[in-house]
Amino acid sequence: MDATDPRDAVDASDAVDDIGTVAALDASAAYVSHGTAAERWARAQLFFEAKEYVTAARILDALAAEAPEQLAPRLLLARAYYHSARLSRAEHELRAILERWPVEDYAQLMLGRTLERLGRAGEARRYLRTAAAMAGEFPE
User: Which of 92, 99, 113, 117 is the most exposed place for a label (fewest CB within 10 A)?
Assistant: First the structure.
C-alpha cells in the first residue's frame, strides 16, 4: 500500500464510515431501550408526532414486546408501521390487536385502510364496515 495513492485514502475513509455506522447503530440501539417504560413511551410519542415513524416504531416494538397486554403502545406501533409504509407489519400488528381486543374500532378501521393500501379492497371492506358500525355510522 502506497501512502500517496489516493485509492488508499478512500479505502481508509470507507473503513472509518463503517466504524461510524456501527457506532451509530450501537448508540441508537441503546437509545431505544434507555429509560423506564414511561420515558420510552413519551419518547416514542415525540418521535411519532415529529413524523419519525421508523424511530418511533423501533421504540414501540420493544415496549409492545415488554407489555403485550397494553393496547396504546401496540396501536401506536401499528400506526407508525402504517405511516412508514411498512404495511405488512402494520397488518400483522393490527390482526394481533384485534385478536386480543376484537371491539377496538380504531384497529378495525386501520386494518381496513391498511388492506386497501395493500391492494386488497375486497378484504378491507369487512373491517371498514365493522368500524363504521361500531362508530354508529350506518348506511341509509
Answer: 99
